[in-house]
């Protein structure tokens, strides 16, 4: 999947970004339905205090089901306790478990200030899809970013 209009920018707490990039957290859970095909590129935006795009991964699969079913399928891979999960999912009628693969940490994170200097940029509350123009701005914001960032985003921005 190399559709640049379907590159996802996913906001996660810094501890979850670290765990995803280390490969110890392979499922990211969300309260809403996420419809993203396997292979979708995911840029990981670590929220405060980091406030930077810190790496990327690809979606292997998405499971949309009840919060209980998503927990049962992902509890050992979600990187959170049952209590945290239950608090986060309180009141939700469905949940999504995004199975992530091939995580890559950037040599140099792309800070929010640099992203905003390249043009209007607002990190999503949960996630959003980026346009080709937004991808180009990320590249401008990170001219000295790691090879993984340049290679992945350059390929998509040219598409």
Structure commentary:
The longest helix is centred in the C-terminal third of the chain and has 12 residues, at 147-158. The protein has helices at residues 14-22, 67-74, 82-89, 112-117, 132-141, 147-158; strands at 7-12, 27-30, 41-46, 52-65, 95-111, 127-130. Helix 5 (132-141) packs antiparallel against helix 6. The termini are close together. The protein is α+β, with helices and mostly antiparallel strands. 39% of the residues are buried. Strands 2-5-4-3-1-6 form a 6-stranded mixed sheet. Strand 3 and strand 4 (52-65) form a beta hairpin.
Strand order of the largest sheet: 2-5-4-3-1-6
Shape: elongated
Structural class: alpha+beta
Helix percent band: 25-40%
Low-pLDDT runs: none
> Order of SSEs, N→C?
EHEEEHHEHEHH
Topology:
Blueprint: E1 7-12, H1 14-22, E2 27-30, E3 41-46, E4 52-65, H2 67-74, H3 82-89, E5 95-111, H4 112-117, E6 127-130, H5 132-141, H6 147-158
Parallel strand pairs: 1-3
Antiparallel strand pairs: 1-6, 2-5, 3-4, 4-5
Helix pairs in contact: 5-6
Q: What's the short version?
A:
By secondary structure, the chain is of the alpha+beta class.
